[in-house]
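Dear H.,

Thanks for agreeing to be a second pair of eyes. The structure we're designing against is below in token form, covering all 185 positions.
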């Protein structure tokens, strides 16, 4: 089994999409284990968080440095742990920020507005994640690195080993595809 997972990891690191799919399935319990540290099983955000975890794993395949003498499973375990911890902090910060009410006498109205905002945001996030799956892996990687990780296009192009103009072109094409998908949905 151990050599089996090592083979899957090696092939995934080489970019084999079939093995990457197998790796995602094998790491599914690790994703949910980290999610359930902060969210309850019945929370509506769990599936969205799982999709983000899959993206995090795919992104980690590109950023993993074999020369650091660390096993990939240890690397991804730590990366997912901190990813979900940061997601929870953002969630808690947003919840605390939204808890301020201009009209203290009408707490129910403020709570209803927060619920509507949260539901709308969750639906938009779901549509975005669904649309992201229509992009190629390279396009997903650029969009994720730029918008979610906050990396500059210069940094992204250097890490991907492509020209800056190519990275910009891929980003533009990916955004166009996303806009089209989001309008259809």
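And this is the sequence the design step returned. I haven't edited it by hand at all.
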């Amino acid at each position: 089994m151990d050599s089996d997972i090592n083979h899957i990891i090696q092939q995934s690191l080489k970019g084999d999409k079939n093995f990457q799919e197998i790796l995602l399935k094998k790491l599914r319990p690790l994703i949910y284990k980290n999610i359930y540290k902060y969210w309850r099983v019945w929370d509506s955000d769990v599936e969205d968080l799982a999709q983000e975890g899959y993206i995090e794993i795919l992104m980690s395949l590109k950023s993993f440095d074999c020369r650091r003498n660390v096993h990939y499973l240890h690397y991804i375990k730590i990366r997912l742990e901190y990813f979900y911890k940061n997601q929870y902090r953002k969630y808690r910060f947003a919840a605390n920020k939204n808890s301020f009410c201009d009209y203290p006498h009408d707490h129910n109205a403020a709570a209803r507005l927060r619920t509507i905002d949260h539901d709308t945001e969750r639906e938009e996030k779901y549509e975005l994640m669904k649309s992201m799956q229509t992009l190629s892996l390279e396009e997903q990687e650029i969009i994720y690195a730029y918008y979610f990780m906050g990396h500059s296009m210069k940094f992204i192009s250097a890490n991907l080993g492509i020209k800056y103009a190519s990275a910009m072109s891929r980003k533009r094409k990916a955004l166009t595809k996303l806009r089209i998908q989001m309008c259809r949905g």
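Two observations from my side: The chain has nine helices and no strands. Residues 99-107 have pLDDT under 50 and may be disordered.

Warmly,
E.
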